[in-house]
Structures are given as structure tokens and as C-alpha cells.
Write a structure and sequence with these properties.
179 residues, Rna Polymerase Sigma Factor, Chain: A, Arc Repressor Mutant, subunit A, 2 domains, 0% strand
Length: 179
């Protein structure tokens, strides 16, 4: 674990320096977590909400962090779970097809999205994937995560992750070929 992370965790354990330590964690990791969340929920305002919920969970549970993984791995896992919980709540309100259609349409109106048409098409292809494949593809392709790190975050085997990524890539290629 990064020495700075260890220091922040140590400072968080001291009541008088909790807020300063937490602010240090937020400052250090908020942008990386935001973009991870954003790749899952797509819409900027939703990503902001999920990021806020992530840091609320971190505040509430940091004192019980066992340091058996990297701090960022732990934060990433919380952000992933919060993102998936958010999507599941949305799916209870709308079908995934309806929600993904809303997300797809929002790519054209989103001032935070600065991609070209091919990037929009890639996002639409990713949205067409099942949840686990979508998550694994985003982590491997965009975040350049190693399978071992993804395995720790998603609590699944490296073999299952490789299979999910392989299937995701095939489906995305098919999506591009059919259009």
C-alpha cells in the first residue's frame, strides 16, 4: 500500500484529524473514481450522485478497512458496487432496454462527452452488453486493469473475467459489423 495511503488511514483513526485525512483521500481518488463510475452509469449527474454515495460509504466504513488490499482497490470496489446498485434501482423503474436507450440518447446532449461518432457507437455497443461483460470490458479496455486486480475487486476468478472480456469483445465487434 502507498505510504501516503497508510498515513491517511492512520490519520483517519485519530478523531481530530479524521476530516483532514478523509479530504486527502477524496482529493487523491475522486477523479479516478468518477471516471470509473461514469463508464458504468454513463450520465454525468448520475455519476456525481454515485460518487457522493461512494464517499459517504467510505466515511462510514474507513475505520473498519482491514488493509488486506490497496486502498484504491477497496475504494474501487465500493464505487463499483454503488454503481451497480444505482443501475439496479433504475432497472426497477425502467427496463434495461428503456434505460440504455435513455443513456444512448443522453450521449448526444452531454456536454461532458467529447467523443466523436465512433466513440458514441462504442458506448452504445458497450451498453448492449450484459452487466458483468460491460463492467469487465470497461475495466480492462479503458482502465487498463490487470485481471488479478479485477479479480480482487469483483471477487471472481481470473478465468471467468477473461471469458467475460472475450465475449464482450466479440459482441462489440459484431455490433460494429452489423451497423
Amino acid at each position: 500500500m502507498d505510504q501516503n495511503d497508510q498515513e491517511l488511514i492512520r490519520l483517519f483513526a485519530i478523531k481530530e484529524s479524521q476530516e483532514k485525512a478523509f479530504n486527502g483521500i477524496v482529493k487523491k481518488y475522486q477523479e479516478r473514481l468518477y471516471w470509473h463510475i461514469r463508464k458504468i452509469v454513463i450520465i454525468h449527474d448520475d455519476a456525481d450522485d454515485v460518487l457522493q454515495n461512494t464517499f459517504i460509504k467510505v466515511w462510514n466504513h474507513l475505520s473498519s478497512f482491514r488493509e488486506d488490499s490497496q486502498l484504491y482497490t477497496w475504494l474501487h470496489k465500493i464505487a463499483t458496487n454503488e454503481s451497480l446498485s444505482f443501475l439496479r434501482k433504475k432497472e426497477k423503474q425502467l427496463s434495461w432496454e428503456d434505460y440504455s436507450q435513455i443513456i444512448s440518447e443522453s450521449l448526444y446532449d452531454d456536454s461532458q462527452f467529447n467523443g466523436d461518432e465512433i466513440q458514441r457507437k462504442l458506448q452504445k455497443a458497450i451498453l448492449s452488453l450484459p452487466e458483468k461483460q460491460r463492467l469487465v470490458f470497461n475495466m480492462k479496455y479503458f482502465e487498463k486493469k490487470k485481471y488479478g486486480e479485477m479479480s480482487a475487486i469483483l471477487e471472481t476468478s481470473v478465468g471467468a473475467l477473461k471469458a467475460s472480456y472475450h465475449h464482450a469483445v466479440k459482441k462489440i465487434k459484431t455490433y460494429f459489423e452489423e451497423d
